[in-house]
Specification:
single chain, 234 residues, alpha/beta, Rossmann fold, seven-stranded mixed beta sheet, four-stranded antiparallel beta sheet, 11 strands, 36% helix, binds adenosine-5'-triphosphate, binds magnesium ion
């Protein structure tokens, strides 16, 4: 089943008189339950592409369908709604709320984005903290845990609303290599267990080798995708 389909997808930023073509007519499909990486040098368009998939930014051309919804036509409110219902995000700098505990950070979208009753919330948060190996730290605050642990909590938070798709723009950029590798392994485990589709971007060739499909961006254009076996030898 195809989860994401892009056809001639284009984004040109316009600032004053200057036009910056960031994504130049790319075509790709991403299957449900897959584990996909976008790679490419700085400025190649990775964040722009992920932001369009995540309905944080509008395409300026082409078509983009996410979960059978044509997201290029959504207005601001519908886009926010769509995100809240279907998409989880993991960020490079973790973005945990410093005054909330680990538990409360994972619970947050279940209160603020969706309106879950307390008992179901508790069950969901504990189940996810357990799955990411963080239940023993549930009462700690973000400044009391390591970077890798923060990103584990962020993965749990992204999955809290049972999102079908998790987008992670350079989720390992602020982690040392071993920790980065373990966070990617964790995402893969969650994909295996929950069937969530994960799409992430990275600079790190070793991390990239963990993806099943690797899309390489170069100056806003896409190279042919490589499958895991090729990527591992790249
Ligand atoms: N808000 C914006 N306004 C104008 N130009 C932008 C904007 N965001 C990105 N760009 C430009 O679009 C191009 C693609 O940027 P993008 O951030 O998508 O690249 P990236 O692959 O994510 O890079 P990095 O690896 O450094 O994060 C770059 O030329 C960038 O300068
Ligand atoms: Mg980027």
């Amino acid at each position: 089943m195809t989860l994401i389909r892009a056809q001639g997808l284009t984004k040109t930023y316009v600032t004053g008189e200057v036009e910056v073509p960031a994504v130049k007519g790319v075509d790709f499909t991403i299957n449900a339950k897959s584990f996909v990486a976008f790679v490419g040098p700085s400025g190649s368009g990775k964040s722009t592409l992920l932001n369009m998939i995540g309905c944080l930014d509008h395409p300026t051309g082409g078509r983009l369908s996410v979960l059978d919804t044509d997201v290029s036509t959504l207005n601001r409110r519908s886009a926010a709604n769509f995100r809240g219902q279907h998409i989880g995000f993991v960020f490079q700098d973790f973005n945990l709320i410093p005054i909330l505990t680990v538990y409360e950070n994972v619970e947050y979208p279940l209160i603020m984005v969706q309106d879950w009753p307390e008992q179901t919330r508790r069950k969901q948060v504990m189940r996810l903290l357990d799955a990411v190996g963080m239940s023993a730290q549930a009462g700690k605050r973000p400044d009391q845990i390591s970077g890798g642990q923060k990103q584990r909590v962020a993965v749990a938070r992204a999955l809290a609303t049972n999102a079908q798709l998790v987008l992670a723009d350079e989720p390992t950029a602020n982690l040392d290599h071993d920790t980065a590798y373990r966070v990617i392994e964790l995402m893969k485990k969650m994909r295996d267990e929950l069937g969530t589709t994960f799409v992430f971007s990275t600079h790190d060739p070793k991390i990239m080798g963990e993806a099943e499909v690797v899309y390489t961006l170069e100056d806003g254009k896409l190279r042919a995708p490589s499958l895991k076996s090729e990527a591992a030898h790249a």
